[in-house]
Amino acid sequence: MKKYFIIFFVLILLFSIFINFYGLENPYIFNDEGTLIISAIKFYKANFSVGIQYAVEHPPIAKFIMGIPSNFIVTAYEDTNAIKNEIYGWNYLAWLPIKDLYIPIRMMSAIFGIFSLLFIFLIGKELYNNEVGLFSMLIATFSFDLLTYSRLILMEIYMVAFCLVTLYFFIRLIKNEKIINFIGFFIFLVLSLGSRTGQPLILLFIMAISYPLLTKKLQKKNILAFYAILFIAYIAIFWLIYNPNANVWGYFGFSTPLSLIELNAIPLFSLFLRNSYLFLFGLISSIFLFIAKRKEVVSRIRNKTPDTVLLLFALISLLAFSFLRYGENVRYLIFMFIPFYIIGGYATYYFFKKYNVVKLIVIGLVIVTLYQMMIYYPLFLNYYNFAFTGNNDMIANKVLNEIKDENLIVTNYLPVLVYNAKSIPMPVPIANCGEIMAATNLTNCNEKDIKNLALKKPMIVYYGPNIKNDSIICDVFKTINMTEIENFQDVHIFKVD
């Protein structure tokens, strides 16, 4: 195995680059992608403060990095600047800049996905050896969850990447308390905290618990320096850089800190049902290895070996998500999977080198996952072991296959299923945006826009039972003569006559 290490490493890296970048032009705008594109643009085409305040529930660093391509692409940025916080639900009106920027901004996510895989390898190597790093990287490469966030415009992959580098420097720090390790740990902890609301705060807690437990020779000056770093990192993000003066948790429906608390089993089930069968094999192998080597594991914990941080990370994050309403959304659980990529990599390699049958199982699971990637593309987030979900996503992709139009991008934010053109006066609210519907109707529902739209003879996609009877749709819009040419359940495709 060792003599073929370089070959396998290069093959895995090349495959991960291919799968991360392949098909990023797919014009299906998933979930928050439209909103985050607009927020990212505002950092550069308005100012830093405006960028923070749009999608204010999250710190700015990931959104700021996303916006870098806007410095090199010319498009109608006035459309994004026109969308203020109070019309948050109508980001589809900035159709043109979204269409022009979604591919390069997705490429930023893909780059951070590769970056994450490399640091998963480096952590495995730092704690064990090259081979464990390679198997950890293999499991992560074939993780549908990590792959999804590496291909979409969401903050998760930036958070994962920065948390991994923070963990890497923390491991080096507890092994050798050099100043360079303190500096690296501080820089990437700040970046982690500034990338997303929620999960990085759990990382802060994990680091605070792990340092005194795992440092063999505790020195007062180093203890003070470490906890000063944690405090300053928190202050730097949540007081100096990101201070929206708003009830951030209110955006997630939590009125008080206590309302966050709720016991749920989704995180535990997700460990076994998310990612891939290869990830599941690594998890099961870890459990068997833990039981078989329990005395050795206890001894390693007592001896404060650096890999104990993985157990602490896994246990604390699993408990945190299991007792928080925050853990109900599988999208947030990618943080919890971080240590399991490396733990699973270690266990898989342990059995791989001992048993020929495990070699066959691992090769078989890689082949199965490759096949699943082909049949589930591009709906990777809908993947579960033994199941597949995502009715709305499949409908959206059917619409894309039906309408071959370069001026079409689709979102699964229902009832606004399709971003078609900025001139379409269909200001359909999402969530609880109804209070500003009237103002948006006044600015977009006018006869001039309707006539311009009709002249373009676009395809119009509508989600709902009956477009003519929908009280939300602008009345003037209903005067357009159009013929229904296709429908998928409640998704109707019309052609303007």
Rg = 24 Å
Structural class: mainly alpha
What is the helix/strand order?
HEHHHHHHHHHHHHHHHHHEEHEEHHEEE
In what range is the share of β-strand residues? 5-15%
Globular, elongated, flat, extended or rod-shaped: what is the shape?
globular
State mean pLDDT (0 to 100 scale).
81
Helix content: 55-70%
Low-confidence stretches: 412-444
Number of helices: 21
User: Sheet with the most strands?
Assistant: 3 strands, mixed
Taken together, the total number of domains comes to: 2
**Order of strands across the biggest sheet?**
1-4-5
What is the strand tally?
8
Distance linking N and C termini: 65 Å
What does this structure look like?
The protein is mainly α and 497 residues long. It has 2 domains: 2-384, no CATH class; 395-496, no CATH class. 58% of the residues lie in helices and 6% in strands. The chain has 21 helices and 8 strands. The strands form 3 sheets. The protein has a 3-stranded mixed beta sheet with strand order 1-4-5, with helices on both faces.
Short description:
It is built from 21 helices and 8 strands. Helix 9 packs antiparallel against helix 10. About 7% of the residues have low confidence.
Which features characterize this protein?
497 residues; mainly alpha; 2 domains; 8 strands; globular
Note the topology.
Elements: H1 5-21, E1 28-29, H2 33-45, H3 48-53, H4 61-66, H5 77-82, H6 95-127, H7 130-141, H8 144-149, H9 156-175, H10 179-193, H11 199-214, H12 220-241, H13 266-273, H14 277-292, H15 294-302, H16 308-322, H17 334-352, H18 356-376, E2 383-384, E3 387-388, H19 391-402, E4 409-411, E5 418-419, H20 437-444, H21 447-456, E6 459-463, E7 482-488, E8 491-496
Parallel strand pairs: 1-4
Antiparallel strand pairs: 2-3, 4-5, 6-8, 7-8
